[in-house]
Amino acid sequence: xxxxxxxxxxxxxxxxxHEQPDDAYFEEFLDEFHRRQRQELLQRSSRSLFFExxxxxxxxxxxxxxxxxxxxxxxxxxxxxxxxxxxxTPVQVEMNTTPIEHVxxxxxxxxxxxxxxxxxxxx
Length: 123
Known about the structure:
By secondary structure, the chain is mainly α. It has a domain at 2-83. The chain has 4 helices and no strands. It is elongated and about 135 Å long.
């Protein structure tokens, strides 16, 4: 019985081998595939697309390329730091060192009444 089922399956597969869909099927399939791809891209966020592109870029190259790029960036920053033009002369701030003139009496300020007795009230 098992051999009969196996033989039937082989005959069915042999018949299916000769069947082919027409060209319209493949054109419709290609159009539907492209439509679904575009729809999927429109549904994804720009952040996920950015991370996918960055991860693809890093996975495409060797690890040494990343190390060389980092070393070159570090060297460029250090060269910029050491060769940055300095000012001609340092700026010195001139401070006014003249003494402050004290005013002895001002008419605007209140002066205590020394002649009057202080008022002490009990509550």
